[in-house]
Give the backbone structure.
Amino acid sequence: MPKIVELLFDCDNTLVLSEELAFEACAELANEILAKHGKSARYTGPELMQDFVGQNFRGVVTGMETKYGFQLSDEEREGYVKQEEDRVIKTLKEKAQPCVGANEELEKLYQSKKYGMAVVSSSALRRVVASVEKVDQAKYFPKDHIFSAATSLPKPTTKPDPAIYLFACEQIGVKPSECIAVEDSKSGTLSAVRAGIHTIAYVGSYHDPSKAKEVADMLVSNGAKVVMNHWNEFEKCLAEIEAM
């Protein structure tokens, strides 16, 4: 195996406990869209998260269009994406917290200077930056090493498309095989795996042990190499992959 030189972290519910907060704000706007188009379906935050976890709001809206049989213009869709971004950022700036143990592990990695570190997310760049700044993680990442599938690419996309991971590797100047990604969702894991990146499945944000086990098994079945139940297991997981 090539020497690992770069660590690539998903943001939402991997570094920052943000998914639940974000999906509560998303659900409100999603329901407004459904009502406007005469659809009776309504979402709670957890229901929307179950259907679209790991995707950005552009992916959520596109998925709803397909599922419920309506069509937005590109202008309407992008308008809703901007509205959602503003609502979610406001909520995150007020309430976001780091994933338990993440800051301590990032500090150790930063001090060791053994690896480069970057954030690779589906979410809009403004949202990602707001999240890592709120929880005091921004200092660990160069400003130009925070990547967004919704914002950084010439053509916006969302995970599980591997484009954002491939773009991040290209911009950083590393090969996918020289990287390890940490992901908590199926879409994120598939994105990293399809890019050729060794992937750690993080399930520490799932409070129910049975749900954590279910998600862990699913992520491994989709190509993750090892499972991390808590951030204090990161060094062990890293060593396991480097020894493969």
User: Anything to note?
Assistant: Strands lie at 6-9, 16-17, 97-98, 116-121, 146-148, 179-183, 198-202, 226-228. The first strand starts at residue 6 and ends at 9. The chain has a mean pLDDT of 96. The two ends are 7 Å apart (CA to CA).
